[in-house]
Amino acid sequence: MTETAKTPADFWFDPLCPWAWMTSRWMLEVEKVRPVEVRWHVMSLAVLNEPKLDELPEEYRELLKTAWGPVRVCIAAEQKHGSEVLGALYTALGTRFHNQGLEKNRETIVAALEEAGLPAELADFADSDAYDTELRASHKEGIDLVGQDVGTPVIAVPGADGEQIAFFGPVVTPAPKGEDAAKLWDGTLMVASIPGFYEIKRTRTVGPIFD
């Protein structure tokens, strides 16, 4: 890798997930303080939970009913306008869903599309399965790297030999800024470089802090 080359970080997100949102805001900070390029991909909480839907609490099953629309709009935007539009669209959707607490309805999605410079008619795909094959393929790409026993986000970074090493997370709140963002990134690369490293975890005692 040359001095001017940027380290790739592949990031799979579902815009519905507040923890993925936290991690994504950290990655935007990382791009400011390290030579890193985030490459955005769509995964789906609805797809992820299909095999165990009957085992989930009713409240979470109801939440998942709202999960199809936003990811379907994201995958349609990617298919029609290229993957480079996903970052701006995710920011526009996530800001509305999480920071502003707006309803995950057509009006909110249209406003996000317009902010991202995308056609408002892409909101029609929220109720369409036209790109579900592509959505499932994008989801599978991330899950195949990290394994089944995870949620969103999934991040894949170069390991010791340059191969992609994927993790669920990091789960963090609030999103680290400045040097803290850089240190967490450096640590992520460090653990990815250790053969056989899988997991560090502790109980969450604070919910997502949107700032």
TrEMBL record:
SUPFAM superfamilies attached to this UniProt entry: Thioredoxin-like
Pfam families reported in the protein's UniProt record: Rv2466c-like
Record protein name field: DsbA family protein
Lineage, opening ranks: Bacteria, Bacillati, Actinomycetota, Actinomycetes, Kitasatosporales
Organism in which the protein naturally occurs: Streptomyces rhizosphaericus
